[in-house]
Amino acid sequence: MEAIDPIGHHELLLVIVQLTLLLLVARVLSEAFSSIGQPAVVGELLAGVVLGPSLLGLVVPSVYESVFAVSESQFHLLEIISWIGLIMLLVVTGLETDIDLIVSKGRTAVILSLGGIVVPFSTGFALGWVLPAPFIAAPDQRLVFSLFIATAMSISAIPVIAKVLIELGAIRRDIGQLILAAGMVDDTIGWILLATVAGLARTGVVDLSSALTTVLSVLVFLGLAFVVGRPLVAGAIRWVDNVLGSDTALLSTLMIFALAAGAITQYLGLEAILGAFVVGVLVGQVKRFTYQLRHAFETITLSIFAPLFFAIAGLRMDLVALADPAVLGVGLVVLAVACFGKFAGIMGVSGLAGLSRWEGVTIGGGMNARGAMEIIVATIGLGLGILTTNMYSIIVMVAIATSLMAPAIMRWSIPKIEMREEERTRLEREQYLQESFVNSLTRILLPTQGGADTQYAARLIGSLIRTLDVELDLLCVNPADESRRTRERAGFPGWLRPGHYARGGDESSETVPTPTGSDEIGRVFSRVETRLGEQDRQPRRLTRRTDASVSNAILEEVNVGYDLVVLGERSLGGYPGEPLYSETVDRVVQRTPCPAMVVSTPYSMDRVPDRIDEPIRRILLPTVGTLSSRHAAELAFTIAAEESALVEVVHVVDRPQSNDQFAADPNLSSEIEVGGRIVDREAELGRQLGAKVVTTVAVSDDPGAKLVEIARRNGTDVIVMGSNTRPISGRAFLGPNVEHVIQNAPCPVAVLSSL
């Protein structure tokens, strides 16, 4: 096989110059239109018109002819870039598509799509039947021509609609999702019609078998995508995140799936955009593909590839051909029929679909955009000999004009659509999920030696992740030197350091032997896994042997890429300046690159392990209104919703101390009012997450002692707190109130250090 010659120097230079000019003009015009309150996509579409034969070809014909009036093979290089942009734009659309919402509105979407197909198809067919013969490439095939015009009038431009909805911030609204759903059904039917008409043009007879094959291909592809593709995509994303753990690897995986699916649908004659859209939908349902990754992909697409796609589509527009009065007159008639057909079809069924007038106007305006989809249809018609050059220019003009009309109509009508309470609640929850600490968790590390503290930590983590798509890894670290002294210096979780005593002066706490053999390590893992309860996925078991400190081994593992490390460890400190925890836990909390949660239990749980499994009926949640308190609140509410527990949100106002016994009590009404707002805000979040919540605002000159008192009085089962780690004298200091609670609470305490 002979080596393929590389692209020529001039051809490569030309395509680079073309892309430079297209992107430059598209971005300049998009920013200009954005600055006057118009969607950027309008400027991007006009960029191609400006650089095409309509303007540059008239004003500076020599420049146009040398740069853009090129051979078909040269222009195909631009088309490849355009298709990559189109595929990426459809992936973005899929990522923003709520498939559950669309399914819930499936009946409405089908009604709208039928209205958006039947009426435009009928009016388009009638138009094709009466158009003058000079506009028909083969006057003896008027039936084929009329069917083709009808099909062209029925198409909508999902990429244009999606871009406008994204720019208007309406793609997540019910109306945006409904437009996308109806548009996808609309286009699917449109492509089936196109396949049928194309078959008719090639053979001269209606090819029903081709139409049936297309319908069957769509159904089979969608069925396999959601039955087989969904777990395949989810598994691949999780594997890449676990093994490679980089954003670039995840973004590459997304594009590989999109291109592969696009190749499959293109092979089936369904167009590559369908496969790309479906991949976007599937990946959008995988929690591992975070909001930050979506935003990164969307930024790349909307800033580079989408502008190029729209600008290249505009290059096909030739206003010169419309200078002929006859061509212009027919063009205006075709444009009027196209707009009337879509609006009449959508408005005619919007009432039947239970939509308001403004919703009908918005959907009609959106689905009226034809964009590149109609340009593709026109190109196919020209290649099949169905359209004349003039008719091709008219259809391209309609595609551009309707795409320019859609943003203005939707910008005008969307603000007039009243947001329902159900929709407002959904959008607020989506906003919370984007910013949520708990929802951002994808990987959690739980180091363990099998003690009661770690087992109770597993109990809490099990309730936390049961409804989340989270990978949990259990880690057991063994030092190379198995002597007790070495193990104690290493500071394993669950061990007392020499010379220190348990809370309350109890010196007889149970120590957990360091597991050495595989059987013992297996039993350690089993004890922890039992406390996790039923989970969709079993945790991974990781065993590490180290010659260095245990903390180094844990930190090395954390650095692989975890979102939370959970440590089970009781308080050891009892003297001022002494660390609360063992050297291992203290060092991990200080140096971990991710949030850390330390769970401490009373020593009685060592002696009576069954207490670990006692129901969690009441959770105490101290809060001071900081971000770390909010993160701890999310943990508490998520656990409470799973355990059907009551969360008591408490804010303690710190009463200023005074040495003057005759001084009047300070007026703390403003502080109490602020505390009330703090607990009410957290309580609202708890109710959104499905937890039962009560609130308390107390005043004390010793907030830590007050929290312990409340926990004892109300029979609290576990305390969940947020705190910031502050390095003091080489140890992690969580604040005097937090440390007092950890040392004196009558129940387990979980402290989250997330900042």
Briefly, what is this?
This protein is α/β, with parallel strands linked by helices and 755 residues long. Helices cover 61% and strands 9% of the residues. The strands form 2 sheets. A 10-stranded mixed beta sheet has the order 3-2-1-4-5-12-9-6-7-8, with helices on both faces.
Structure keywords:
alpha/beta; Na+/H+ antiporter like fold; 3 domains; ten-stranded mixed sheet; two-stranded antiparallel ribbon; 29 helices; elongated
Describe this structure in words.
With 755 residues, the protein is of the alpha/beta class. The protein folds into 3 domains: 9-426, Up-down Bundle (Na+/H+ antiporter like fold); 438-501 and 508-613, Rossmann fold; 615-656 and 667-755, Rossmann fold (3-Layer(aba) Sandwich). The chain is 61% helix and 9% strand. The chain has a 10-stranded mixed β-sheet with strand order 3-2-1-4-5-12-9-6-7-8, with helices on both faces. The longest helix has 36 residues, at 208-243.
